[in-house]
Design goal:
The protein is built from eleven helices and two strands. By secondary structure, it is mainly α. The chain folds into two domains: 75 residues, Orthogonal Bundle (Arc Repressor Mutant, subunit A), CATH 1.10.10; 158 residues, GntR ligand-binding domain-like (Four Helix Bundle (Hemerythrin (Met), subunit A), Up-down Bundle), CATH 1.20.120. The radius of gyration is 23 Å and the shape is elongated.
Length: 240
């Protein structure tokens, strides 16, 4: 019985991979309906339970969606970058929580990725982008702002900065870096960091963005990285 289950699992994986490959190769069009479970079972010469498991695997990857009713079935999904952000963030959080990732390593990775956007931010930022970042800096200067609210604004500011690059692939890849790694850094450093210093770093960065100065953006992010690393190192050293 165990071998049978294992074989079914292997078969469902193979079938889901074949369908996935057809989607990637555009042999199956976005929005088109897959054959019925019975038709797929006959096509792959397996039982319907194996097909159901294969479809579950595809649905878990957001590659298909199911619809009930007379006109229902399994349809090829149109995956948007925005829709995939949450999955990217969740994966990054799990990786950080389940593995022994050093604070300095996470900090290094996050700022290196963010600096990769600097050139494109300088070229493509809009006045709307600038106003959005300035709004967050004003929010951060409010005296009654809680630590949680300050951290949330901090994350929003850096997401806006990344999105200024107007590159959906970069925004998607950096979703995890900003929304998973930055909360980790905030959680460790919020008790000792200076809000005034953070705001000064942000003001320096927005000034460079306004002037389309890629080197200035890089410089501001590097200074913020050095400050964050120093805080983290001091806190972690105090626990030893």
């Amino acid at each position: 019985m165990k071998n049978e289950k294992r074989n079914n699992a292997n078969l469902s994986t193979e079938i889901s991979e074949q369908i996935k490959e057809s989607i990637i190769n555009k042999d199956l069009d976005v929005g088109s309906r897959l054959p019925s479970e019975l038709e797929l079972a006959e096509q792959f010469n397996v039982g319907r339970s194996t097909i159901r498991e294969a479809l579950k695997r595809l649905a878990a990857q957001s590659l298909i969606r199911t619809q009930r009713g007379a006109s229902g079935g399994a349809f090829i999904n149109h995956i948007k970058f925005e829709d995939a952000h949450e999955q990217q963030v969740t994966t990054s959080i799990l990786l950080l929580s389940m593995n022994d990732v050093k604070f300095e390593t996470a900090c290094e990775a996050r700022f290196a990725l963010e600096r990769a956007c600097a050139k494109f931010v300088a070229l493509r930022r809009t006045n709307t982008d600038i106003l959005a970042i300035e709004k967050e800096i004003l929010t951060q200067g409010q005296s009654k702002l809680t630590d949680e609210e300050f951290c949330a604004s901090d994350i929003r500011l850096h997401r806006i900065l990344v999105d200024c690059a107007k590159n959906p692939i970069l925004s998607y890849q950096l979703a995890g870096a900003v929304e998973a790694m930055q909360p980790l850094m905030n959680m460790i450093t919020y008790t000792v960091r200076s809000r005034e210093k953070i705001i000064l770093f942000h003001q320096s960065i927005i000034s460079s963005i306004r002037n389309r100065d890629a080197e200035g953006i890089n410089f501001g992010l590097s200074n913020l990285e050095d400050y964050t690393k120093t805080l983290g190192q001091n806190i972690l050293a105090s626990y030893k």
